[in-house]
Amino acid sequence: MENDPILSSLLGEVKGAIIHGYADVKVKNIILDSRKVLPGSLFVALRGTQVDGHQFINTATELGATAILCEELPESVREDITYIQVDGSAAAMGLVAAAFYGHPSKKVKLVGVTGTNGKTSVATFLFQLFRALGYRSGLLSTVQNQIEDEVIPSTHTTPDAVALNALLAQMAASNCSHVFMEVSSHSVTQHRITGLHFAGGIFTNITHDHLDFHKTFDNYIKAKKGFFDALPKSAFALVNIDDRRGTVMVQNTKARIETYSLQTLASFKGKIISDTLAGMHMDINNQEVWFRVIGRFNAYNLLAVYGAAVLLGEKEEAVLTELSNLKSPPGRFEQFHSADHIVGIVDYAHTPDALENVLETITHLRQGNEQVVTVVGCGGNRDAEKRPKMAEIACRYSNRVILTSDNPRFEDPMDILDQMRKGVPPLDYKKTTVIEDRHEAILKAGIEAEPGDIILIAGKGHENYQDVKGVKHHFDDKEVLMEVFAKRAGN
Ligand SMILES: CC(=O)N[C@H]1[C@@H](OP(=O)(O)OP(=O)(O)OC[C@H]2O[C@@H](n3ccc(=O)[nH]c3=O)[C@H](O)[C@@H]2O)O[C@H](CO)[C@@H](O)[C@@H]1O[C@H](C)C(=O)N[C@@H](C)C(=O)N[C@H](CCC(=O)O)C(=O)O
Ligand SMILES: Nc1ncnc2c1ncn2[C@@H]1O[C@H](COP(=O)(O)OP(=O)(O)OP(=O)(O)O)[C@@H](O)[C@H]1O
Ligand SMILES: N[C@H](CCC[C@H](N)C(=O)O)C(=O)O
Ligand SMILES: [Mg+2]
């Protein structure tokens, strides 16, 4: 194609690249999976967690790749192929992908949100807020990607560098002025965000998760900090200073540091005046506001959103007015009420901290002798250390606990449940049941509940599938909850 960029024009920011072959070859697309290579592709060989992409270089050239971005040359080098040798192909890919799509992150105001919990909530609130303020906006999140009203399904919390820049380019082409995205720790370590230009970064919190991938908590902290280290001087770095790691996150950033807090002096200081199932009343920088979303964790999320909006130049009053109308994103403390007054809450809490926050919120909302029943499981092929912790937390705050399956992936659900069960204190054995089948577990919780009781279904939130051995079967916590509510109503 006429418009395909030439390879050398994409390498401007890649330091120390050694080019073997013709540098002016045209690049049709950038591909990181050899099975998807097309004639004219630039194939990037990445060292993955399962395999080393370098072993697929020859397959890629056989399928028509004309250029290869790699760390090591293959044993047999072809004369008609251009090899770009770099120290790190993942980081180089980020820079090349940004250049290939014309640096779309520079055409919008891009704000990234990182932290163990609250990324989807904060990014989605910001997206909703800026749309309400009249800006064309884009969203990249775990639940879905969105360009104004157009929904594009998401595969990851943060897509790979090529998909990410392609989406940003689509957003810029559709005249979005603002884009809000989640920055997962995986995406920092794997350089999915390298080459992006951020107008701001937000840190929500850091607690136990993903030790399967990062191995130590220190590495996990370093990954998140890497996002702030790379922010430019022109950006803001907005951090929750009530989190012990808030200060460390921005220790080496060039960005302008701003803070938010519910406990101490900060650029954006909040106080909860009251918090009920009907709404939350807060004081933010000496202005009183009512919100529809509830829970202390959401007070933090709202402060982050308010702070970011003000730092992006919006007027405080207008921001607070629009914020008070926002609703929680799907599967985040989503409440349902049965005809006979049972409250069902579907929440994506899949870490010990999130589960504790949600259950603490429920505890505060309790008014009398209603029972709290928690249905929860843990995902397979993910951090196993959180399993007993989540079971213990569920027991600590609930009258009854049903441990069940989440996404078992390639693990045996009963093995996961055995590990969860190890966290149940002996005194709580009696109130804890294990029901592997999630459908059955939710039905049991719903049928046995009495009017006034609160059922928390935690771990899967918005997800509409259950991943068993790589196959996604339709499953939706909300649907099952509606089924049980209908049964209770005699339908
Ligand atoms: C652990 C992890 O992050 N894995 C991601 C990673 O895959 P990987 O390192 O395992 O890849 P691999 O299978 O070893 O293959 C290495 C390379 O060889 C290539 N390959 C492989 C086979 C082949 O025949 N040909 C070929 O070219 C692969 O395309 C890849 O580039 O790179 C892939 C391509 O970008 C991602 O799709 C994949 O995400 C997997 C599906 C995943 O589940 N990731 C989760 C853990 C994740 O990223 N989660 C975070 C959110 C976490 C949070 O909640 O905070 C996210 O941002 O979504
Ligand atoms: N600021 C917060 N602090 C602690 N817990 C929170 C916070 N915000 C939300 N939560 C809890 O964490 C769950 C996940 O929230 P959210 O989806 O916003 O986080 P996330 O960081 O995007 O998660 P993921 O890493 O899976 O993408 C919520 O359902 C809620 O239980
Ligand atoms: N982004 C998180 C989602 C976890 C959701 C939970 N339902 C599970 O499957 O473990 C992860 O990939 O670890
Ligand atoms: Mg998320």
From TrEMBL:
Residues that, per the record, bind UDP-N-acetyl-alpha-D-muramoyl-L-alanyl-D-glutamate: 32, 34, 157-158, 184, 190, 192
Keyword ATP-binding (UniProt): yes
The reaction(s) this protein catalyses: UDP-N-acetyl-alpha-D-muramoyl-L-alanyl-D-glutamate + meso-2,6-diaminopimelate + ATP = UDP-N-acetyl-alpha-D-muramoyl-L-alanyl-gamma-D-glutamyl-meso-2,6-diaminopimelate + ADP + phosphate + H(+)
Binding site for ATP: 115-121
Limits of the Mur ligase C-terminal domain: 331-461
GO MF annotation terms: ligase activity
Post-translational modification: Carboxylation is probably crucial for Mg(2+) binding and, consequently, for the gamma-phosphate positioning of ATP.
Keyword Protein biosynthesis: no
Motif stretch (Meso-diaminopimelate recognition motif): 406-409
Domain of life assignment: Bacteria
EC number: 6.3.2.13
Short name of one Pfam family: Mur_ligase
Keywords: ATP-binding, Cell cycle, Cell division, Cell shape, Cell wall biogenesis/degradation, Cytoplasm, Ligase, Magnesium, Nucleotide-binding, Peptidoglycan synthesis
Residues covered by the Mur ligase N-terminal catalytic domain: 27-101
Pathway: Cell wall biogenesis; peptidoglycan biosynthesis
Modified residues (N6-carboxylysine): 224
Membrane-spanning ranges: none
SUPFAM superfamilies according to UniProt: MurD-like peptide ligases, catalytic domain, MurD-like peptide ligases, peptide-binding domain, MurE/MurF N-terminal domain
Binding site for meso-2,6-diaminopimelate: 382, 406-409, 459, 463
Main location: cytoplasm
Domain Mur ligase central: 113-309
Co-factor(s): Mg(2+)
Similarity comment text for this entry: Belongs to the MurCDEF family. MurE subfamily.
Role of this protein: Catalyzes the addition of meso-diaminopimelic acid to the nucleotide precursor UDP-N-acetylmuramoyl-L-alanyl-D-glutamate (UMAG) in the biosynthesis of bacterial cell-wall peptidoglycan.
Full protein name: UDP-N-acetylmuramoyl-L-alanyl-D-glutamate--2,6-diaminopimelate ligase
Organism: Dyadobacter beijingensis
